[in-house]
Structure formats: structure tokens, C-alpha cells
């Protein structure tokens, strides 16, 4: 008993050494458990997140094909190449085309747009006279009328790690590729729990036999862990962690999920700073084809490259890559995945690489800055870089390319002609759709492909005469005081300023013209009559109207504002002219049409919204006057470059010492605002018409334009004597036919006499009261 | 879908697309959602096809036809998307603006419905039937907002365009 008690006492109180060992063991156990729990947490948190972590993709406006579209076969072919379509002898599938002179056969790719899916179609196109003459289905049948190509991806918004991906579901991956990965990298994949002793043993054996490192012992799971969580450093600790995490990963996820992740994560090369992860992206990068279109030997090459993507880089080391590929083909034959005969046949084929494309992650940084500003208002940064959003923008890459090219080209020519040092001039321009307010092109500077100072958004420059139309608009809103036929004094003027100084505005030509009709003062951009008109109306009215028309910046409420003494960005000027071009309807400028989530559901739409800020008929008077600017006024030189039937309207802007040259103009469907100047604000000796106007004409004359046909609602027309502003008979020299708000035709007859016809062939006076009603109802 | 939207769309079809329609009284939605007595409209007038630019006319017609199909399913957001595409091709076609106005009316977005109808009015050249249609649409939008006096004024304006 005593002995037993003694023994049990001994068991309860072991020697100090063993006690220490026990405690140490316990501590180690706790530490290891904590470590495992930590790893487990990390795996579960990060695996899901990283598994579907995708950059937001930004798309340009798609090219819409229809009979009559102004588009040459060359232009279409350029567009198709940018969209990675392949020229082939015979069109067999989506993304292929075949051209024979003016005929082109094409199979479009299916694509899901925000307003619905667009199916893949095989089409025969015929071109002539710079137009698409017809498009017909290749298999006969009715002409589709309108077909959209898949849109060009212009940017990806990445998370901090600069990695692009094309995520694929397991069922989108060719079965041969999956089988080949397993055969070559991890034969026991379906049987192990993350680690494979047999795999390690076999790798060792193979290495010994070949007296080199020919096989690695890592399972696919271990490789996935390595790709997901670790960099490329090798250490014992990392190996240990990797093994533990592989086991944990297998515990939480099934083989399919692990395989799918592996295929999307596997590292397959480097494109400059961009890492090529995943078989989807690698297929694009090496073969310029989607994965499902790859041939078996191309799949074998991808599998072979995993062992050393830079060592086996098929572009840099085609010999090595080919040997490796053929080795993989032999393994596939050994495993019974293909026949030996087929393996031998495939081994004779070339590598089948696609052309290396300069992958542009952000081709239009200026435009994208505006897109991102809009997105930041509506989304959190992490949603942009993780959710795989698809952002459909308004950018028209054809208009954008033309705008970039025309601006750079014209600036070079101006520098040569004016003997300015090359590169001295800068410029910026914006093109919008007058109807929808969508921004079609945004050129932030001369070298617009490079990210840099975005002049469209940030360069605040004096706008000069660009503000004059707003002042005249304010005047015409009061038909009892002003009409286009009002006579303005053009004589020397002294304005007493608040600070006691006096200001004497002068016209650009330095002369005074006595009396001038209101519309001519604007058409010729005369300064003195403009200031007189402004003083009669008051600067506060102008400020308030400019804000309603779309200017958001604070404006200096001094008389100098009548002549445009305000610093605005080209984007703000665009807002102002958008409202003028849209007939007094304010339309927010838009860069985004819709945002879809990764599954193609619409997250958010940015619908067209309009708000009337000025009555239609008054706006028509201003549009009519701006058309005269182009036909007979300060912009008549560039006006000669347009078909008069287009009714192009515009306004020049030139500031003191010719520092800034502006032009804003619009047809029925397109508005363009151009600024040319120096970044250091130095003088350059160019008027609005000579600098910015020339760029405007270069660009707009190459765009498909619709005419600006003015509405006849609420207007009367009358012949006016330019000397007196009174109604002119046929005998009056140089009489002009002017539009008036209904009921505001002057009743005064001109002294040049003759029987006056108030309506001048226009409207019957009987319905004037109806027309007046028009303006009453708001 | 609210009751009565259908009729608005039918009105838009007849007024803007050149689709023949049988003369029948058409009712537009009132503020409470149901058809309001006194808002019965005379039949819309059959119009010639929209005078779009020579190049884009066919494409605009295709888009409008697609929009009509979707309108039957009440997929107004997608209808609006198609009409915006058409407007990109022909921004000065007042009929397209009228249709978009009808979509907003159907969605109960009365402010935009009125603004878009006004946009259409500003582009009309001599098309009295379309002007009448736009004013009726404005009247219905104001009715929807609960602005009865404004609706009456708009109906008077519509009557001018007989």
C-alpha cells in the first residue's frame, strides 16, 4: 500500500526535468495550434476573396454597323485588328474575318451589353464610296439592319498588385488541359489530401535517374498555395507553411474548387510589369486566342511552361519551349490521354504563337480620369478593383484617335508656319454628342497617350469671347427691349469701375463702327457694343444665366466678364456649349452609360437626363446667330471647309495678347470645344479662328455630321434694314432676313422705304397669339 | 407595371413610328395610378416614318422596332437604352425624344417625361400632330405630379395644334 502510495506520489510529482519538458511540450502545442488556426483563418479569408478578385474592366462604345454607315473597309479592318479579330482564309468561328477588296466576311463575337445580349453573327459586308453599303447574313436570310461588334476594352482598374486575369469556370476549361496538368504536375491529385509522399518519391526517383531537377514534388494544391500566398523566395519555413496550408485548403474546399482556382492563378509568364496569371490570360497572351480555341499542342505548351515560365518562354526560347512541349505530349501519350501516333504528329507542329501585342492597360488616361472621378462618387475603391465590374463608357475610339491625331498634327503645322519652337504649343479638346451629352473623345494634351497634366479637366484659362453668346442670349430673353435687329452703339466708351478707375474697351480691329445691329455685333464679336449691351443688362444677370447654362465655377461679377474675363477649364466650356447646342436643355456630360457586375447584371445605369433652362425659341435665335458666325463672321475662314447645308454653328475666343485660342462649335449631332495655348500662359500670336478653329475644322470635317436644322416654332421672320434696324422693303440696300420671337418683329419702317412686309414670307399674324402662348407655358 | 402605361406606349408607337393604329380612345395614367376620367385622348395620328439622317435612318428604325418589342414586356430601362442609342445616331429627331418621354411617363418619372417632351417640341418643324402629342404627354405628366392646373394649361396648348 505504502509502496503503491509512494509510486503514485512519484507519478503526481515527477522530477523537475520532466516537468519542464511537459510544460515546454504544452507551450509548443499551444503555439503550433495557434499557428495552425492563424493559417486556417488566413486561408479561408483570403482564398474566397482572391479566388474571384478581378479588376474592373472599362469598355469603349462599340462600333455599330449598319448600311450607310460612313466607314471604309480599311477602317473596319483596323478596328477588327484592335479587337483581336483574326484574318483567315475562310471564316469558321467568332473573331475571324476574311477580306477581299471591298468585300469582307466576318463573324462577330457574342457579347452581353447593358441593354441586352448581342449574338454572334456571320456577315457579308460590302463597301464603296467610304461607306458600308450593305451587310447580309452569310447564310442568306434577312439583313439584320444593325449589328454591334464587341466593344474594345480601353482600361482595367487594378488592385494594388498589378495582375490582370481572365477568370474561367472549370467547365470552360478544355478537359484535355485539366487532364494534362494532372498528368504532368500531380498524378495523385484526386487521391491525396494536399501533400503526396508518392509524388515526392517519384520526383526524387526521376531526378536521380535524369541526374537533374526534372520533376518537382509539389502537388497542385501546394502550387496553388504558393501562388496565392507566397512570393518566390525558398526557405524551410515557407515550405512548412505551404504544406500546412495545402492540408488546410483540402480540408475546406473540394477538388473542383481547388483545381479551378489553380487554373486561374497559375503563373505563366511576364509581360513587362504585368504578371500573366491563369490559363485564360496566358492563352490570350501567347496565342492571341481564347482558351477554348487552342489546339492540343498549344495546350501542351501551356502545361509545360508551368515548370519555368521564363526558362521556357516560347517567344524568347522557342527551342526549349518546343522540347518541353513535346515532352509533355509524350507524357500525355504515356498516360493514354492521346495516342502515340497523335503525339508524334502534334510534335511536328510549330508552336503556333500569336503576335505579341503591346498590352495597353490604359490607352486613354485623360478620358479615364473623368470616368474614375464619376465612379468614385458611386463606388468604393475596393469594389472597383475586386468586383469584376464591367464599365461601359461613352468613348468612341474612332473619334478619339482622330481627335488626338488632328490636334497633334495641326499644332506641328502652326509651329512651323509661325516659326515657333517645336513642342511650344499645347492643346486640349472635347467632343460630345449634342443630343445625349455623352463624351465621345477627350484629348488632355498633345501627347495624349501618356498620362500627364489633363488640360481638359484642370487647365483654367481665360475664355474671352466664348461667353458672349450667353450675354446676347440674356438680352434676347427680353424681346420688349432687345431683338436681333436692335441697334447697338459702337462708339468710344468709358466705364467707371467700382475702384474708381475707368475702363475703355476696344474692338479687336481697334476701330469703332458707329451703329451696328445686335446680331452683327455677336457675329463679328465686337467688344464695345457687347459691353454696352452688358451694362444695360447688368453683370449679375449674366452670372446667373451662365450658372444655369452649366458653369459651376465662381465667376467674377465685374464688367470685364462681358468680354470673358473668367478662367474656365475646357470641360466647363463644353458644359456651357452643350446647353447651347441642345437648344437650351442642360444635359450632364456623361462618360459612363452603365455598370454591370461580373455576372452581367446591371448595377447602375446613367440615364439621359435633360432640363430646360432657356426657352426654345430664344435659343433658336442664338443658334441662328452662331451659324452666321461661321458663314460670315469671325469663323468664316473655317466655315468654308463645311457644306453650308450642315448649318455649322460656332464661336471663336481669343484673349489678350493672343495667349489663348478657343473654338467651340456644333453641328446637329456633334459638339467640339478646342483650346490651344501655352502651358506657361505666354503669348503665341494666334486668334481663336487661326489656332483652335483650325483644329476644330480639321477634326469635324472628318466626322459624320448631321445638319443643324433650326426649329421654326415660336419665330417670325422679317426683312431688316441694317442701317436703321427697321423693316426693309425690297429697295433697301443690303437688307437681311432675321428671325424674331413671335410678336416681336419691329413695327418701325426703315427710311429706305418701300412697302414693308412684316412677316417677310413667314407666318400669318393671325396665329401670333398662339405663338405667344408657347412662351407662357413652362 | 402600372395600369395605363400600355396605352401611353401605344400612343407613342402610333405617334412616332409610322405604325398604323386603329382609331380608339387612349387613356393615360393619372396621379393615382388608375386611368383618370377626363384624360381620354383622341386617337393618335398615323405619321410618316421618322425623318432621320439619310445614313442612319435604317438603323434608327431597327432600334425603335427593338424598343417596341421590349416595351411590350415592360422592360423600360432597356427600352430607354435602345432609344438613347437611336438618339446618338439621330439626336435631332423629335419623335425619338417623344418616345423616351413616353418611357419616363410609363415609369412614373414625371419630371423627366415633361422635360423630354419639351426637348421634342423644340425640334419640331411643322409636325403639328407630334406637337399635339407632346403637349398631351406633358399634360399627363403634370397630372401624374398632381399639378392639375398645369395639366389643364398643357391640354389647352395641345388643342392649339389641331
- According to CATH, the fold-level topology of the domain at 163-347 in chain A is Penicillin binding protein transpeptidase fold
| Gyration radius from CA atoms of chain A, angstroms | 36 Å
> What Rg of chain B, in angstroms, do the CA atoms define?
14 Å
Overall CATH architecture of the domain at 163-347 in chain A = Orthogonal Bundle
User: Please, what is the oligomeric state?
Assistant: heterodimer
How does this structure look, described?
The complex is a heterodimer of chains A (about 775) and B (about 160). With about 775 residues, chain A is of the alpha+beta class. Among the domains of chain A are: about 60-150, Penicillin-binding protein 1b fold, CATH 3.30.2060.10; about 165-345, Orthogonal Bundle (Penicillin binding protein transpeptidase fold), CATH 1.10.3810; about 465-565, DD-peptidase/beta-lactamase superfamily (Beta-lactamase, 3-Layer(aba) Sandwich); about 715-775, no CATH class. Chain A is built from 25 helices and 32 strands. Chain A is elongated and about 120 Å long. Mean pLDDT of chain A is about 85; it is low at about 760-778. With about 160 residues, chain B is mainly α. Chain B has a single domain, classed as Tetratricopeptide repeat domain (Serine Threonine Protein Phosphatase 5, Tetratricopeptide repeat, Alpha Horseshoe), CATH 1.25.40.10. Chain B is about 60% helix and about 0% strand. Chain B is built from seven helices and no strands. Chain B has helices at about 5-15, 55-70, 75-90, 95-105, 110-120, 130-145, 150-160. Chain B starts with a helix and ends with a helix. Classes of the chains: A alpha+beta (about 775), B mainly alpha (about 160). At the A-B interface, β27, α22 and α25 of A face α2, α3, α5 and α7 of B.
Amino acid at each position: 500500500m505504502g509502496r503503491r502510495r509512494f509510486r503514485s506520489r512519484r507519478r503526481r510529482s515527477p522530477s523537475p526535468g520532466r516537468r519542464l519538458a511537459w510544460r515546454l511540450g504544452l507551450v509548443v502545442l499551444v503555439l503550433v495550434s495557434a499557428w495552425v488556426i492563424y493559417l486556417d483563418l488566413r486561408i479561408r479569408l483570403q482564398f474566397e476573396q482572391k479566388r474571384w478578385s478581378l479588376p474592373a474592366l472599362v469598355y469603349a462604345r462599340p462600333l455599330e454597323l449598319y448600311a450607310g454607315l460612313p466607314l471604309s473597309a480599311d477602317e473596319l479592318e483596323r478596328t477588327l485588328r484592335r479587337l483581336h479579330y483574326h484574318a483567315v482564309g475562310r471564316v469558321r468561328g467568332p473573331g475571324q474575318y476574311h477580306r477581299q477588296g471591298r468585300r469582307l466576311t466576318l463573324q462577330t463575337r457574342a457579347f452581353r451589353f447593358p441593354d441586352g445580349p448581342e449574338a454572334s453573327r456571320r456577315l457579308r459586308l460590302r463597301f464603296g464610296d467610304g461607306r458600308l453599303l450593305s451587310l447580309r447574313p452569310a447564310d442568306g436570310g434577312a439583313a439584320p439592319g444593325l449589328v454591334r461588334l464587341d466593344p474594345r476594352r480601353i482600361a482595367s482598374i487594378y488592385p494594388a498588385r498589378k495582375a490582370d486575369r481572365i477568370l474561367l469556370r472549370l467547365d470552360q476549361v478544355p478537359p484535355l488541359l485539366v487532364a494534362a496538368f494532372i498528368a504532368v504536375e500531380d498524378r495523385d491529385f484526386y487521391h491525396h489530401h494536399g501533400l503526396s509522399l508518392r509524388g515526392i518519391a517519384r520526383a526524387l526517383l526521376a531526378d536521380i535517374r535524369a541526374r537533374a531537377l526534372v520533376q518537382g514534388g509539389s502537388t497542385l494544391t501546394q502550387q496553388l498555395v504558393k501562388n496565392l500566398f507566397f512570393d518566390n523566395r525558398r526557405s524551410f519555413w515557407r515550405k512548412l507553411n505551404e504544406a500546412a496550408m495545402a492540408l488546410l485548403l483540402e480540408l475546406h474546399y473540394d477538388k473542383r474548387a481547388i483545381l479551378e482556382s489553380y487554373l486561374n492563378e497559375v503563373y505563366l509568364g511576364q509581360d513587362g510589369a504585368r504578371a500573366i496569371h491563369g490559363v485564360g490570360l496566358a492563352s490570350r497572351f501567347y496565342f492571341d486566342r481564347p482558351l477554348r480555341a487552342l489546339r492540343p499542342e498549344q495546350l501542351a505548351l501551356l502545361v509545360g511552361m508551368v515548370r519555368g515560365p521564363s526558362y521556357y518562354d516560347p517567344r524568347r526560347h522557342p527551342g526549349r519551349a518546343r522540347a518541353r512541349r513535346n515532352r509533355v505530349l509524350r507524357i500525355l501519350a504515356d498516360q493514354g490521354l492521346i495516342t502515340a501516333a497523335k503525339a508524334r504528329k502534334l510534335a511536328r507542329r510549330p508552336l503556333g504563337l500569336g503576335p505579341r501585342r503591346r498590352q495597353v492597360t490604359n490607352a486613354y488616361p485623360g478620358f479615364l480620369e473623368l470616368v474614375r472621378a464619376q465612379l468614385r462618387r458611386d463606388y468604393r475603391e475596393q469594389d472597383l478593383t475586386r468586383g469584376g465590374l464591367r464599365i461601359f463608357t461613352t468613348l468612341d475610339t474612332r473619334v478619339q484617335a482622330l481627335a488626338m491625331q488632328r490636334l497633334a498634327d495641326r499644332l506641328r503645322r502652326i509651329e512651323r508656319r509661325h516659326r515657333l519652337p517645336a513642342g511650344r504649343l499645347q492643346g486640349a479638346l472635347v467632343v460630345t454628342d449634342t443630343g445625349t451629352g455623352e463624351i465621345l473623345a477627350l484629348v488632355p494634351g498633345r501627347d495624349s497617350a501618356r498620362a500627364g497634366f489633363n488640360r481638359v479637366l484642370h487647365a483654367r484659362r481665360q475664355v474671352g469671347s466664348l461667353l458672349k453668346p450667353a450675354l446676347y442670349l440674356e438680352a434676347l430673353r427680353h424681346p420688349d427691349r432687345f431683338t436681333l435687329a436692335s441697334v447697338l452703339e459702337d462708339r468710344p466708351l468709358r466705364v467707371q469701375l467700382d475702384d474708381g478707375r475707368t475702363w475703355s474697351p476696344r474692338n479687336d480691329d481697334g476701330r469703332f463702327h458707329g451703329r451696328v445691329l445686335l446680331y452683327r455685333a455677336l457675329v463679328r464679336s465686337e467688344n464695345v457694343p457687347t459691353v454696352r449691351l452688358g451694362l444695360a443688362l447688368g453683370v449679375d444677370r449674366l452670372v446667373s444665366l451662365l450658372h444655369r447654362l452649366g458653369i459651376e465655377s465662381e465667376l467674377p461679377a465685374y464688367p470685364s466678364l462681358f468680354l470673358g474675363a473668367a478662367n474656365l477649364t475646357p470641360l466647363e466650356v463644353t458644359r456651357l456649349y452643350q446647353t447651347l447646342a441642345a437648344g437650351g436643355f442642360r444635359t450632364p456630360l456623361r462618360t459612363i452609360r452603365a455598370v454591370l457586375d461580373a455576372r452581367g447584371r446591371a448595377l447602375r445605369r446613367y440615364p439621359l437626363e435633360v432640363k430646360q433652362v432657356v426657352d426654345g425659341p430664344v435659343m433658336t435665335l442664338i443658334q441662328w446667330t452662331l451659324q452666321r458666325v461661321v458663314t460670315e463672321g469671325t469663323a468664316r475662314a473655317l466655315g468654308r471647309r463645311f457644306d453650308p447645308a450642315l448649318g455649322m454653328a460656332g464661336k471663336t475666343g481669343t484673349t489678350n495678347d493672343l495667349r489663348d485660342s478657343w473654338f467651340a462649335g456644333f453641328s446637329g449631332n456633334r459638339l467640339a470645344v478646342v483650346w490651344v495655348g501655352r502651358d506657361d500662359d505666354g503669348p503665341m500670336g494666334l486668334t481663336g479662328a487661326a489656332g483652335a478653329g483650325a483644329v476644330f475644322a480639321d477634326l469635324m470635317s472628318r466626322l459624320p455630321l448631321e445638319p443643324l436644322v433650326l426649329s421654326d416654332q415660336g419665330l417670325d421672320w422679317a426683312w431688316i434694314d441694317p442701317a436703321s434696324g427697321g423693316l426693309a422693303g425690297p429697295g433697301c440696300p443690303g437688307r437681311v432676313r432675321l428671325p424674331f420671337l413671335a410678336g416681336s418683329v419691329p413695327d418701325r419702317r426703315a427710311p429706305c422705304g418701300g412697302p414693308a412686309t412684316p412677316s417677310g414670307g413667314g407666318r400669318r399674324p393671325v396665329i401670333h397669339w398662339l405663338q405667344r402662348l408657347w412662351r407662357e407655358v413652362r | 407595371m402600372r395600369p395605363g402605361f400600355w396605352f401611353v406606349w401605344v400612343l407613342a408607337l402610333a405617334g412616332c413610328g409610322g405604325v398604323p393604329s386603329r382609331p380608339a380612345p387612349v387613356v393615360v395614367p393619372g396621379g393615382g395610378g388608375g386611368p383618370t376620367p377626363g384624360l381620354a385622348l383622341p386617337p393618335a395620328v398615323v405619321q410618316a416614318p421618322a425623318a432621320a439622317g439619310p445614313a442612319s435612318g435604317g438603323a434608327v428604325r431597327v432600334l425603335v422596332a427593338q424598343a417596341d418589342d421590349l416595351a411590350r414586356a415592360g422592360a423600360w430601362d432597356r427600352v430607354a437604352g435602345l432609344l438613347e442609342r437611336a438618339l446618338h445616331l439621330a439626336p435631332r429627331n423629335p419623335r425619338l425624344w417623344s418616345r423616351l418621354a413616353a418611357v419616363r411617363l410609363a415609369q412614373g418619372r414625371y419630371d423627366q417625361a415633361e422635360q423630354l417632351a419639351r426637348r421634342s417640341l423644340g425640334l419640331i418643324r411643322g409636325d403639328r400632330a407630334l406637337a399635339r402629342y407632346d403637349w398631351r404627354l406633358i399634360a399627363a405628366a403634370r397630372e401624374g405630379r398632381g399639378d392639375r392646373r398645369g395639366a389643364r394649361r398643357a391640354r389647352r396648348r395641345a388643342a392649339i395644334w389641331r
